[in-house]
């Protein structure tokens, strides 16, 4: 798992541990979520980005 965390972090992802499943029927095996952090500046968004 350490290698997966390292690889995701090297690409800018943040790994967070799930507190509880969103849906007990489909998400019962999800332990971690990987996501990109929100950008702090709109200047970094490409032109036409609908944020």
In short:
By secondary structure, this protein is α+β, with helices and mostly antiparallel strands. It contains one helix and two strands. 0% of the residues are buried.
Walk me through what this model shows:
The protein has 51 residues and is an alpha+beta fold. The chain has one helix at 2-10; strands spanning 14-17, 32-35. A two-stranded antiparallel sheet has the order 1-2.
Give short descriptive properties of this protein.
alpha+beta; 16% strand
List the helices and strands and how they pair.
Blueprint: H1 2-10, E1 14-17, E2 32-35
Antiparallel strand pairs: 1-2
Biggest pleated-sheet summary = 2 strands, antiparallel
| Annotation field: number of helices | 1
Low-confidence stretches: none
Which bin fits the share of residues in helices? 10-25%
């Amino acid at each position: 798992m350490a290698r997966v965390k390292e690889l995701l972090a090297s690409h800018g992802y943040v790994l967070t541990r799930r507190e509880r499943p969103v849906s007990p029927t489909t998400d019962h095996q999800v332990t971690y979520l990987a996501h990109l952090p929100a950008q702090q500046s709109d200047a970094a968004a490409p032109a036409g980005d609908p944020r």
